[in-house]
Design a protein that fits this description.
alpha/beta; seven-stranded mixed sheet; three-stranded antiparallel sheet; 9 helices; globular; binds pyridoxal-5'-phosphate
């Protein structure tokens, strides 16, 4: 069977060359006589892979030594709890409510700290990211979601929170565009969108922010303890980290984040240009904050939406159904989606429009 173009929002497509390399090394990692899955996480052969993965991410994101990189489990969602548990000092935090995951993060934080929602686009069904904020200078941290996976919106510039550390959930656009990490106190991302398989969460944090956790913070969620143990307080997701390494190497060989950003802009423009001129399909996110990773659109007719999703699937373009809170369609075009996949999608949309508009 031929591979399809997979527009899933996550777990999402992985570059074919990465999968092929993993296949080639699956049973016998070169020179080691065993699979990466079979290696002890304490063995020097595995530590070598682990250290290389970290170094690659540091290089790709230009992360200075004042920041630590953690490879954790529990997905991005566990960080919704870890953030307030590690950063609460005064007991106040500012949250921007820009989508479903942002909302969930704020809800979770309320269990541990006083949450002040400083901006929200909830009333507009999150069709944009708020850009007017009522930041509080006395907050322990300020929280944003850089890309809203379900609604197809993103921040095109990073809000300025002054001396208050900015915490960001970048699960769905990490490594898709250049990002000045020094603007953030903490940035985290689940791996299953733009990095590799599910089960790994990457946390990049300024070193001086660790060490202030709530005494009841579970050990595994303590950033300070994880830093001290180099993410190996218990067995990490060894294979997921190895897959991330293959993904990072693929991205490096392509020219890094700067190069993929050019490609991502081109890919997204192909879709948005078509949508802006379509007689049938309408984009749902406001133009000024459209995501380069998740492109949401509707026909305005539920049955027609469903018919299109089916029509596309029959042509090898799968997982285009939108999230239930927006309806319609969502094309997730992360780093690993080739331009040819986006071109084919536009072609199929044109054909469907011809038959139905
Ligand atoms: C997918 C996603 C999450 C949830 O990630 P899990 O790894 O399933 O916990 C959180 N935030 C954003 C922005 C996401 O896209």
């Amino acid at each position: 069977m031929e591979r399809v173009y997979n527009f899933s929002a996550g777990p999402a497509a992985i570059a074919q060359s990465v999968l092929e390399r993993a296949r080639d090394e699956l049973v016998c990692y070169p020179g080691r006589g065993m699979s990466v899955m079979e290696m002890s996480h304490r063995s020097s052969m595995y530590i070598e892979i682990f250290d290389e993965t970290k170094a690659l991410l540091r290089q790709l994101m230009h992360i200075p030594d004042t920041y630590e990189i953690l490879f954790l489990q529990g997905g991005a969602t566990l960080q919704f709890s870890a953030v307030p548990l590690n950063l609460t000092k005064a007991g106040r935090a500012d949250y921007v409510d820009s989508g479903n995951f942002a909302h969930l993060a704020a809800q979770e934080a309320m269990r541990y700290t006083q949450v002040r929602v400083v901006a929200s686009s909830r009333e507009d069904n999150y069709d944009h990211v708020p850009t007017e904020f009522a930041w509080n200078a006395d907050a322990d941290y300020a929280y944003i979601t850089t890309n809203n996976t379900i609604y197809g919106t993103r921040y095109t510039s990073i809000p300025d929170t002054g001396a208050v550390p900015l915490v960001a959930d970048a699960s769905s656009n990490i490594l898709s565009q250049p990002l000045d990490i020094t603007r953030f106190g903490v940035l985290f991302a689940g791996a299953q969108k733009n990095i590799g398989p599910a089960g790994l969460c990457i946390v990049v944090l300024r070193k001086d922010l660790a060490g202030f956790e709530n005494p009841l913070c579970p050990k595994l969620m303590s950033w300070a303890l994880q830093i001290k143990n180099d993410s190996m307080l218990n067995t990490p997701n060894t294979y997921g980290i190895y897959m991330a390494k293959l993904g990072f190497e693929w991205l490096r060989d392509l020219g890094g984040v700067e190069a993929i950003y050019e490609i991502n802009q081109r890919k997204a423009a192909l879709l948005y240009d078509f949508l802006d001129n379509s007689r049938l399909f309408k984009p749902t996110a406001r133009p000024e904050c459209r995501s380069l990773m998740n492109v949401t659109f509707v026909t305005g007719d539920k049955d027609l939406d469903a018919a299109f999703v089916k029509y596309a699937a029959e042509r090898g373009l799968v997982n285009l159904k939108g999230h239930r809170s927006v309806g319609g369609m969502r094309a997730s075009i992360y780093n690993a989606m080739p331009q040819a996949g986006v071109e084919k999608l536009v072609q199929v949309m044109k054909a469907f429009e011809k038959e139905n508009a």
